[in-house]
Amino acid sequence: MTTLCAELTFTAVAVPKTWLLLPLLLVMYGAGVLVIREAVVRVGGGWPSLVLLGVAYQLAEDGLGLQALTSPRMYGAADWGMRAFGVNLTYWESQIGVHVVLSVLVPIGLTNLLFPVQRDRPYLSNKGLAGTVVLAIVGVLGLRAFISALMDPGYRTPWGWTAVFFALIALCWVIALVVLPHRRARRVRPARSVPRPGVVGFVSLYLTMAFLTTLLPLGLGSHLLLGDLMSPPQRLFVAAMTAVPFGLLVLRWRAAADWSDRHRIWLIGGILVSHTAFMMYGSVSAVCVGAATLAVEVYLLTVLTRYVQRHPAEHRDGHHPGRLGAR
């Protein structure tokens, strides 16, 4: 699910050859996020822990694996925005948003909808978890050996930044698994009423596209939609002011009494559709592949909605308020 949501409905739209990397992507994305999900469930954490470990995941992938956070040549990302102290800040902010939401929160949310009884339960035994950790490490090393080495041959992240990335990853894990689960969660002031699911879907679609187009060129090409309207520091600020209020709005919606699984599906659907549509630029093939991908996404989300409606008892929110299955 993570590989599909984060990569194959995004990069593969413009670069269909991405499917050839499916075995590596399954190991890197699937194992990495499965470790995150298992760790958070085992300590009784909730969405704050998932978000923080999503940041750690992004640092491991883009900082240690792809080396894209510091490389001046990878993806041509150095031309997208602002660099400081040898780090591509624009790329970093964009990928934090993409990986926290598309790699971690959305796949886990979809899986919880498909298997509601398992929301607060580990999937793996201790041996299974240990093996998955090994696979996740292999996946990061694979990114370094196969993708980074081919796209940016000879480049090595400076040792200083490598040490910083390791330290930040460790800090994220400690806070997410040791500190946050034992803190009393602050009650979010709920919205009086949640809009219709379609409105939730439109808001998530619009704000996702606003975040992506503020930081990244359409289709990851050379055309930055708002490049002439804002300076690189302004784009960093505007993107943050798009993402943070959106997250707070979703928290208020989730706390409302009339929030439902249909709202969840429309929220996720808006994010996924916008994520795919962003890549439909630059070539006829991207438009065609993207249109087909969107059709499949909408169809599967419709099937999921019907599935949830047929099993209402299983999808009632009766879980501990701090756990993954809670509102």
Q: Any chance you could write out the topology, listing elements then pairs?
A:
Blueprint: H1 2-8, H2 11-14, H3 22-43, H4 47-65, E1 83-84, E2 87-88, H5 89-114, H6 126-151, H7 159-179, H8 197-215, H9 232-254, H10 261-277, H11 284-310
Antiparallel strand pairs: 1-2
Helix pairs in contact: 1-3, 1-5, 3-4, 3-6, 4-5, 4-6, 4-7, 5-9, 5-10, 8-9, 8-10, 10-11
Describe the protein.
This protein has helices at residues 2-8, 11-14, 22-43, 47-65, 89-114, 126-151, 159-179, 197-215, 232-254, 261-277, 284-310, and strands at residues 83-84, 87-88. By secondary structure, it is an all-alpha fold. The chain has one domain. Strands 1-2 form a two-stranded antiparallel ribbon. The relative contact order is 0.15.
Features:
327 residues, mainly alpha, two-stranded antiparallel ribbon, 11 helices, globular
Query: Class by helix and strand content?
Result: mainly alpha
Number of domains: 1
Task: Please summarize the sheet with the most strands.
Answer: 2 strands, antiparallel
Strand order of the largest sheet: 1-2
Order of helices and strands: HHHHEEHHHHHHH
Runs with pLDDT <50, length 5+? Answer: 317-322
Oligomer: single chain
Helical amount: 55-70%
Please tell me how large the radius of gyration is: 19 Å
From the spread of the alpha carbons, the general shape counts as globular
Average per-residue pLDDT, rounded, comes to 88
Number of helices: 11
How far apart the termini lie comes to 21 Å
